[in-house]
Amino acid sequence: MRTQVAIIGAGPAGLLLGQLLHQAGIDSVILERRSHDYVLSRIRAGVLEQGTVGLLDKVGASSRLHAEGLSHDGFDLLFGQKRHRIALDRLTGGKHVTIYGQTEVTRDLMDQRAAQNGKTVFEAGDVALHDFGGTSPFVTYVEDGITRRLDCDVIAGCDGYHGVSRASVPASALDIFERIYPFGWLGVLADVPPVSHELIYARGERGFALCSMRSGTRSRYYIQCDQGERVDAWSDERFWDELRRRLDPASAEALVTGPSIEKSIAPLRSFVAEPMRFGRLFLAGDAAHIVPPTGAKGLNLAASDVHYLFEALTEFFVERSQAGIDAYSQRALARVWKAERFSWWLTSLMHVFPEQSPFEQRIQQAELDYLVSSQHAMAALAENYVGLPY
Ligand SMILES: Cc1cc2nc3c(=O)[nH]c(=O)nc-3n(C[C@H](O)[C@H](O)[C@H](O)COP(=O)(O)OP(=O)(O)OC[C@H]3O[C@@H](n4cnc5c(N)ncnc54)[C@H](O)[C@@H]3O)c2cc1C
C-alpha cells in the first residue's frame, strides 16, 4: 500500500491532521494500535480553546460541538474559602473556551473520516517506522496476523507519549526536558449536574480540587492525591467526602453526588522532547510533549502542532517547498514551551507540595492574593487559559 502521509495514532492529533490533509487533497492512512471502541472509551480532556474549535470548524467536524458544547466566559479560583471569578471574556477582549469532551471530538473526527472513506487501520500491531532519515520512508505493521508495508512520503508520529514514533528516534538525537510532580489527580466522571455552571479550581490545605463538567448533566471532578495512590482505595463515598472538604461551604452544600461511571488516577508530568522533526518523521501532540492537566492544554497543544504541521505539509506537497517542514519544529516548540510554562505555573500555584516549607506556603498564598487583586495578573492568566494565538 502507498500513501503520501502515514499517520501513526488515531487520537485527536492524528485524526485532525488526517481531515485537514483530506481537505487539501493530500492522501493519508492512519495506523492505530487499539480498536475503534477502545479509543472512544478513553475519558480525557474537556476544555477547548477557540483555536482548536476553529480547526474543527475548518474540517467541518464541529456541528455537534456547536449544538452540545458549553461556551464558558469565565471560571472560579477558590482559596481561603472564597471564590474569585476570572472573567475570561472581559479580560481577553471577548474570548471564551468551549466545554466539549475529547471523546466527543474523537468520535466526530472518526465519523467524518469514515464517511469520507478515509483509510484507518485499527488494531494495527507491531507498528515499526523505517528509513525516515531518507526520502522513501515506510511503515510496517501486522493486520489480521499478516505483516503489511505502507510506503509513504512522510510519517506523522501522532501516537502519544507511549507511542512508537519518538521511541524510533535514536536517543542521542533527542533532548529531553522533564519534571515529574509529587502527586496525581484522582478523577471521577458521574451523571450528576455540575456543582457550578463554570469550572472551579480550588486550592486548600487538603490539596487541589477541580470541579469540571462534560455537559449540563455529566460532571467531571478531580482531587489531588498522593503519588502511588490506588483507585480501588477510593470508594465513591470517600471521593465525594474528600471533594466536599476541599470546597467552600456553599459549593459543598450544593454538590450533587451519584455513582461514578469512570474513576482513574493520572500522574502529573511536564515533558518536552526536542526537536519535533527527524528527516521525514514529524512528531505532534503527546508524542512530543506532555503537560500537567491543570492548564487544560494537552489536547489544545496537539491541535496547534497539527495546525503547524498541516501548513508545513501543504507547502511540501502542493508548493513543492521544503521551507515549511524545515521550520516546523521551531514554530511548534515556540508555542509548546509557552503552554508548558503556563501549565507548570498553574500547577505550582494550585497544589499542596509534600515538602513545602512554611516560606514557600506564604509565597504561594501571596501569589494567589496578588493574582485576584491585579487586573494585569488576571489578564495574563486569562490570556494563557483561552490559548495564545497560533
Ligand atoms: C488519563 C489522561 C487524562 C487526561 N486529562 C486531560 C485533561 O483533563 N485536560 C487536558 O487538556 N488534557 C488531558 N489529557 C491530555 C490529552 O488527553 C492529550 O494531550 C491528548 O489526548 C493528546 O492527543 P494526541 O492525539 O497527541 O495523543 P493520544 O490521545 O494519546 O493519541 C495517541 C494515539 O496513538 C495510539 N498509539 C499509541 N502507540 C501506538 C503505536 N505503537 N502504533 C499505533 N498507534 C499507537 C494510541 O492508542 C492513541 O489512540 C489527559 C491525558 C490522559 C492520558
Largest sheet: 8 strands, mixed
What would you call the shape? globular
- Discrete helix count: 13
CATH architecture classification of the largest domain: 3-Layer(bba) Sandwich
Strand order of the largest sheet: 6-5-14-15-16-13-17-20
Radius of gyration over alpha carbons?
21 Å
Which fold does the CATH topology of the largest domain refer to?
A: FAD/NAD(P)-binding domain
Number of domains: 2
Record field, number of beta strands: 20
Name the structural class: alpha+beta
Write the CATH homologous superfamily of the largest domain. Answer: FAD/NAD(P)-binding domain
Fraction of helical residues: 25-40%
Bound heterogens, unique: flavin-adenine dinucleotide
- Please report the distance between the alpha carbons of the first and last residues: 35 Å
Percent strand: 25-35%
Assembly status: single chain
- CATH class type of the largest domain: Alpha Beta
Short description:
This protein has helices at 12-23, 36-41, 50-58, 63-68, 88-92, 102-115, 164-167, 236-245, 249-254, 298-317, 323-350, 358-373, 375-386; strands at residues 5-8, 28-31, 47-48, 70-72, 74-79, 82-87, 97-99, 119-121, 125-130, 138-143, 146-151, 154-157, 175-190, 200-204, 207-213, 219-226, 260-274, 277-278, 281-283, 289-290. The protein is of the alpha+beta class and 390 residues long. The mean pLDDT is 97.
